[in-house]
Amino acid sequence: MKTSNDIINCRSCIYRNLLYDKLNDKEYGQVNSARTEYIYQRGELIKQEGDKIKSFLYLRVGLVKLFKTDHFGKDHILSINKPGDFISLLSIFSNSTYKYSISALEETHVCEVALPVLKNLVASNGAFALKVLNRMSHISDTIIENSFRINQKQVKGRIAHILLFLADKIYHGHTFRMPITRREVGELISMTTENTIRTLSEFKKDGIISMDGKTISILDYGRLVKVSKSG
Question: Whole-prediction pTM value?
Fold first, then answer.
């Protein structure tokens, strides 16, 4: 982990309108003075389950995974988050410690804003508070919807769903380098590593995808969508 000076002022951040557009100049200054941006490399732990919550986090560059570890030491991925996501918003008002861990999947830039500053703005600026509540509801709805969709599918449908998520929501293209291992894919969709590997091999054999190491190309997008829906 190291600090970054890429963003001099929050007003220059492309994601400012997701949350900060209801702030005045003085409030912008308060956020900016309480903000630090950190750079993490792949595999680095950003926050550990049980750590004390001291700041509000949002993802500016890169990808992270949110996960919990059971008493057997097995990880269960809750979500993969992309730039613009607020990766601590669901916890900062209800818990004093993190209920999940956060780890970088590639080089990742995370902005941290001291929690007391954010809470003071919520208490004093009603429009900002409503924006925060809106974002919290959006995050909750997304998690619930994704979990419901995955749980309704069989193995092939789950793998297809993840490939479409990566293509459409993360990389915006049909060829991409997998940011997670086969084991992590299984953790994300509650399937074994063996089932994940076998299904990807079947997709390749059927001409739906091609694989070259960690690079995946979707060759038949329409068919993959059908598998996701019918699986």
Answer: 0.85
Q: Please check whether residue 180 is in contact with residue 65, taking contact to mean a CB–CB distance below 8 angstroms.
A: yes
Q: Which domains does the chain have, with CATH numbers?
A: 2-149 (2.60.120.10), 153-230 (1.10.10.10)
Average pLDDT per consecutive 10 residues, the chain (231 residues; last block may be shorter): 76 79 90 93 94 91 91 86 85 86 94 93 94 86 83 90 92 93 88 92 96 95 94 72
Tokens of 207: 């001409």
Measuring CA to CA, how many Å separate 83 from each of 104, 129, 183, 212? 12, 22, 23, 26
The helix-helix angle for 193-205 and 155-165 (nearest 10°) equals: 80
Q: Side chain identity at 172, as an amino acid letter? A: H
What would the two tokens of residue 161 be? 């769903």
Give the H or E element holding residue 69: strand 64-69
